[in-house]
Amino acid sequence: MTNRFLITYGYYFRNYYRSRSFYLMLLLVLLISGLMVYLSFRYINKLPDFIPALKGKTISTSLKEDLFLYIWAFVLSDLPVFAAVFFGSPAISSEIENRTAFQIFPLPIGRSVLLMGKYLASVSVTLAITAIYVFMEFITYTLVFPTQIPVTFLSSLGLLVVFIFSISAFTFLVSSIFKKNLYAYITVFLIYFIIFSAINIVFELIYSYNPFFLLANAASIVERVFINVSTSTFAVNNSIAGAPFSSIMVSLMVMVLYLVVSIVASLLLFENKEVK
Predict the structure, then answer these.
(1) Helix (H, G, I), strand (E, B) or coil at 211
(2) How far, in Å, CA of 71 to CA of 195, rounded?
(3) Which phi and psi angles does 239 have, rounded to 5°?
(4) Of 129, 178, 156, 128, residue with least CA distance to 65
(5) Is the model's pLDDT at 230 over the cut of 50?
(6) 0.70 cut: is pTM over it?
(7) 39-69: buried (b, 16+ CB within 10 Å) or exposed (e) per residue?
(8) 3-class SS at 239?
(9) For the segment 164-187, what is each residue's pLDDT rounded down to a tens digit?
């Protein structure tokens, strides 16, 4: 079983990093990283202007470091979504649409092994892509602030890894529902960027309730560990301090719940999927 899984994982991992989607994401990450490096050196002394409450004020070096890391993490939190869409959305639907399922399903490998091998391969290339951005962030930070990296930076990275696993699992779930890649692509984008935002508006403005259970809101913890300001909600209790431990744990549990439910549902759907 282990040997079959490793073979499956290696096969799909090679397919991913040789695909056009990988090179497209690589180019995108390099462009965004380069732009962030330029903006960091260009506007380092104007960081307080990004927070209305701090505009025009003199702030401490530690708060400036938090602002710097917050802005980099804010951009970073959306990169796994695009990577997961490129790598995860067509993961299962492509096998049906391209008719490759006729060659794969009869192989003496369980469907659960196929799905988990492909899922972890997708997660691996997404981690590799985001690692480039994180590396550029780390280098820029050490050049701008020649001090020790704060613990919150490591916390943010740990939460980012969990989010990558969660959003990848969610895209696999969507992919297991459809038989065409385009439908899977569009559905993930609609749910994450439009439907989740619409639910935010309804709950925040009408019911004055923060829908913490949405994956997009939970993912904002990646940047909120530095400064507890979320641009995805309309909450008025935001703070320039980092998110409290309770908020971190709630967001972590939400992401883990999405991960577990999505994987289980994907396995059930994939096991019972018929190819006609």
Answers:
(1) coil
(2) 24
(3) -140, 150
(4) 156
(5) yes
(6) yes
(7) ebeeeeeebbeebeebeeeeeeeebbbbbbb
(8) strand
(9) 999 999 998 888 887 777 777 888
